[in-house]
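PROTEIN DESIGN WORKSHEET
SECTION A - STRUCTURE
LENGTH: 477
TOKENS:
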């Protein structure tokens, strides 16, 4: 879809400092930030936000951002996204939308470090579940809403496995700037996430299909109806998601870790993280970039297949994307659909594939897949440390463990795993893992090849009698 609205004076400053650029180096079309296209209108490739850094004053060192902490009375500097706005300078200040997103935590997690096989003190969890809607999506949603506000959009849509829709619905309800329309696959979204979208009042369209079907449809429908699309194909969203990395660096007192490990679904995060480091390096604000590990669920392993088995690489900006098309044809011919307990990343056709290839190139990246058993065991370990996460998030920890076992990550490497969503997002998977009821276990997990719950904390059943209760507590505590 494309809108071009008359340019208000407030935008003029932004227009000569930031623009949209086609990712295809053989096209290189550019568009102003007062326009909205989900793809390049000339060649159909993804768009990227680019800056004329000479016209944008950027702090000389990252530590200068610490001064923003003293300005917490200013909502823009309170926001964990907009306090770095000099590194995503596409919006006039009066158009910025914030609901206080990005107050997140980098937590040293020694117990998880032992599980992963890394020296205690070296593993950190970046907990994005602390965002207002409970997932990392708010980092990008405030950025997309800001752009929508710049161009005066009135309706916004997304396809979602649940978190994007929860975030969109929340920003619509809090700001009242737009009406939200969400597309979900039938039976493919956890109740925690669905409950958010319903309660916050988004128009919820349940498609008879999965996320990949919903994603294809929402692009067609928003184009036909001129609705602003907030999936991560929207390049402004990824600008907001860059700030997760700025906060990681901030928490590490501006030291670059050795590894960033992130779950991969639609590949928005990995793409945004790669862009963040690419720009920081260009700006001379860091001297080296971390390595990036993107972790697929085994039941939704497109990136792993394409990158590791079919050798689809960035190739200097000319990746052979036809390799992906052939693979998608194969999936269709064989009627193969994504299937994993980590429903947030149950995605077979990641829209940001090409940008993720760039990120992997910039950050000397690796891709791995982990199965549902590994995901749930890792999730239980994370949860036992007190700051729990949803299944998809735990793919990062399971992936780090695998990479450690393979000797790719070293025992003394400093590793940051991104926990993308809150523990309460998907209680069904958690309760099924810890249940004593074999039927529930089989129903939710057994059918997905999960056959044990090694770290389960099972409830104990006792008669309603004081002596029995006391005895049980003495026995088990
Ligand atoms: N983790 C969680 C909790 C997610 O919700 C998602 C994506 C991902 C990881 C994958 O991130 O797409 O940047 O690779 N959820 C989307 C949604 C697809 O609709 O909520 P990605």
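SECTION B - SEQUENCE
RESIDUE ASSIGNMENT:
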């Amino acid at each position: 879809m494309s809108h071009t609205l008359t340019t208000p004076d407030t935008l003029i400053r932004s227009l000569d400092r930031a623009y949209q650029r086609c990712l295809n180096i053989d096209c290189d079309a550019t568009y102003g930030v007062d326009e909205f296209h989900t793809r390049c209108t000339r060649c159909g490739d993804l768009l990227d936000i680019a800056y004329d850094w000479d016209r944008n004053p950027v702090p000389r060192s990252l530590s200068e951002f610490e001064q923003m902490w003293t300005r917490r009375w200013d909502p823009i500097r309170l926001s964990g996204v907009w306090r770095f706005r000099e590194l995503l300078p596409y919006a006039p200040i009066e158009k910025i939308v914030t609901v206080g997103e990005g107050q997140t935590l980098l937590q040293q997690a020694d117990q998880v470090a032992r599980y992963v096989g890394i020296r205690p003190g070296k593993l950190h969890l970046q907990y994005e579940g602390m965002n207002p809607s409970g997932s990392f999506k708010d980092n990008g949603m405030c950025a997309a809403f800001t752009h929508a506000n710049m161009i005066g959009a009135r309706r916004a849509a997304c396809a979602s496995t649940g978190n994007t829709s929860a975030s969109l619905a929340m920003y619509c309800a809090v700001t009242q700037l737009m009406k939200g329309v969400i597309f979900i696959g039938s039976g493919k979204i956890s109740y925690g996430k669905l409950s958010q979208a319903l309660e916050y009042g988004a128009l919820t369209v349940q498609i008879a299909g999965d996320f990949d079907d919903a994603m294809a449809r929402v692009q067609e429908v928003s184009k036909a109806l001129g609705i602003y699309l907030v999936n991560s194909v929207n390049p402004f969203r990824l600008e907001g998601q860059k700030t997760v990395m700025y906060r990681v660096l901030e928490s590490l007192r501006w030291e670059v870790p050795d590894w960033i490990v992130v779950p991969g679904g639609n590949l928005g995060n990995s793409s945004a993280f790669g862009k963040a480091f690419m720009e920081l390096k260009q700006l001379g604000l860091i001297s080296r970039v971390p390595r990036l590990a993107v972790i697929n669920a085994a039941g939704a392993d497109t990136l792993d297949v394409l990158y590791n088995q079919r050798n689809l690489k960035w190739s200097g900006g000319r990746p052979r994307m036809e390799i992906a098309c052939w693979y998608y044809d194969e999936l269709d011919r064989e009627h193969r659909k994504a299937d994993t307990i980590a429903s947030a990343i149950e995605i077979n056709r990641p829209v940001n594939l090409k940008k993720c290839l760039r990120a992997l190139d910039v950050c000397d990246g690796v891709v791995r897949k982990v199965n549902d058993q590994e995901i749930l065991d890792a999730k239980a370990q994370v949860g036992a440390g007190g700051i729990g996460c949803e299944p998809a998030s735990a793919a990062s920890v399971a992936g780090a463990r695998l990479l450690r076992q393979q000797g790719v990550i070293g025992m003394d490497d400093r590793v940051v795993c991104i926990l993308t969503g809150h523990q309460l997002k998907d209680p069904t998977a958690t309760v099924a893992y810890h249940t004593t009821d074999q039927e529930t276990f089989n129903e939710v997990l057994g059918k997905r090849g999960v056959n044990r719950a090694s770290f389960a904390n099972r409830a104990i059943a006792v008669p309603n009698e004081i002596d029995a209760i006391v005895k049980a507590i003495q026995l088990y505590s």
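SECTION C - NOTES
The pocket of F0G is lined by residues 135, 137, 160-164, 232, 263-269, 344-345, 390, 392-393, 420-421 (CB under 6 Å).
The CA atoms of residues 432 and 440 lie 6 Å apart.
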